[in-house]
Amino acid sequence: MRIPAYCLHRPTGQAYVVLPGTKRRTVYLGPWGSPESRLRYAEVIASLDGTPPAPVPSLSRPPAIPAPPSLPQSISLADAYALWIAHARVYYRRRDGTPTSEAENIERSWGPLLTLFPNVLLASLTKKDFVAAREEMIRRGWCRKLIKNRWERIIRGLKWLASESIAPEAPVSAASLPHLIPYRTAAPETAPIRPVALADVRATQAHLNPVLRSMVELQLLTGMRPGEVRELKKSDLIWDGAGCGRGLPIGLSLSQHKTLHHGKARPIPLGASAAAVVAARLADAPADCDWVFTLWRLPRPTPYCRRLYGRSIHIACDRAGVPRWHPNQIRHLVATEVRRRLSLDDARALLGHDDPATTRIYVDEDAPAARRAAEAMEELLKPKEPPQPPKPEPPPEGATE
């Protein structure tokens, strides 16, 4: 039988031994490297059936064991960030191995902190320094919600550095600032996303190229996210019994979507109109390209990126003379119309949400409800006209006074 090893538990500095058997059991022995933990280790090993007793070290002279590595205190902020972003570029990847946009978001989040304290030791940063970094975010014009999201990425990086024994825990506590309160700071507030008017969408589509026009139409018919439409692949299509590539697709099973890392599927049914939109693009797409929607009139098939998709719609809005809108607003439009015509649960199922509360974020139902309430109050408070006295009946013909 192999003698279990004397191990170190780095987070607590305790020594431990894992006992073999059908159910592995961990026994903590005391401070790592101490004579007491060595003595306890020998007693535990000796208690195992069929195992020869381990030699008990002399308490007068502890064994020569290297001390556990101490947390580095001399690493600079820039060097620590370089390790964290290198890990993020490898860790945040899709199923097919392509990188997500998380590494780019991390780079932007750490920008103000690196601008102010590039060569400062990470362990020496105080709460005042992190407050100054957040003030720099406000000075750059970032809105409050964006600052909140990007500050959470900084905290996540500091926690990873501490868990890997690259940096101490102190910067995590120093960076844990209270959240900014709406309208109580200089950070601007963003207006909530509202559904775009269908008339504005139709006017904009007239000034888009055929690929972008089809992408917008597919969003209208399915309520898909802009990223799901941009990254749609031929391998995501579900075909009827006629076989793959023949006839019209009946649905989508997205290989890349927002909640994939949670282990959730994203099936999307396609009606006749949506299937015709996809089939029309497949007819024009190169055979060796897996993307459904690619840049218009480019020799090398390339999908639209997020910025180009939104910018192209803004240019078309200006040409059509309508207010600018963003592709995300189409999803809000679809949710609102499905909720109004069918039910909230139908809108939840179409958008792929688990919780109806998430769907309510997309549904603009306050304005119609408020209008109905105002009309009811107007009817209630409208002054009623006094009853008119009855008109006297005319005397019968031939009657004399």
TrEMBL record:
PROSITE patterns attached to this UniProt entry: TYR_RECOMBINASE
Region named Disordered: 372-401
InterPro entries assigned to the protein according to its UniProt record, in alphabetical order: DNA_brk_join_enz, Integrase-like_cat_sf, Integrase_catalytic
Membrane-spanning residues: none
Bias (Pro residues): 386-401
GO BP term (any one): DNA recombination
Record's compositionally biased regions (Basic and acidic residues): 372-385
Presence of keyword Protein biosynthesis: no
The protein, known as: Site-specific integrase
Occurrences of domain Tyr recombinase (ranges): 191-378
UniProt keyword terms in alphabetical order: DNA recombination
MF terms (GO), sorted A to Z: DNA binding
Pfam families in the record: Phage_integrase (PF00589)
